């Protein structure tokens, strides 16, 4: 009976080195799979945000040109900085506005608004 009690008292519970290494290897495999996936999600989110910003700028230019319908002609351009200065676009992050929007028409007289980066050519 005493031997049984001594065996129970001396029994140490814990993990072996092999078990700990197995867990580390499994975590490494999971990370190797997860990190590229997260990177792709971040890239897609940035692309979606850029596309939404472009649509916002084009819609703001549409309003800008509509309010100046008598002054607007085909191939007119408006810079993003002008849209910001006149309150059509609100850049809350304080970034410097760049690019411009060109107004053109299709064969049916419908307006087409195209955003371009850089500065408009004269």
TrEMBL record:
Main localization category: other
A single GO BP: establishment of competence for transformation
Positions in coiled-coil regions: none
Keyword Translocase among UniProt keywords: no
Signal peptide range in chain numbering: none
One Pfam family this sequence matches: N_methyl
Alphabetical keyword list: Competence, Membrane, Transmembrane, Transmembrane helix
Residue intervals passing through the bilayer: 20-42
Cellular compartment(s): Cell surface
A single cellular component GO annotation: cell surface
PROSITE patterns membership: PROKAR_NTER_METHYL (PS00409)
Highest taxon in the source lineage: Bacteria
Family annotation (NCBIfam families): IV_pilin_GFxxxE
Protein name, per record: Type IV pilus assembly protein PilA
Source organism: Alkalibacterium putridalgicola
Top-level taxonomy: Bacteria, Bacillati, Bacillota, Bacilli, Lactobacillales
């Amino acid at each position: 009976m005493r031997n049984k009690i001594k065996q129970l008292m001396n029994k140490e519970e814990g993990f072996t080195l092999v078990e700990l290494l197995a867990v580390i290897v499994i975590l490494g495999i999971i990370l190797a799979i997860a990190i590229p996936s997260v990177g792709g999600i971040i890239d897609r989110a940035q692309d979606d945000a850029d596309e939404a910003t472009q649509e916002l700028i084009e819609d703001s230019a549409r309003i800008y040109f509509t309010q100046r319908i008598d002054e607007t002609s085909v191939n007119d351009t408006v810079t993003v900085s002008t849209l910001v200065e006149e309150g059509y676009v609100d850049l809350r992050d304080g970034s410097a506005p760049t690019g411009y929007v060109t107004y053109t028409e299709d064969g049916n007289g419908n307006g087409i608004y195209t955003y371009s980066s850089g500065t408009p050519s004269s």
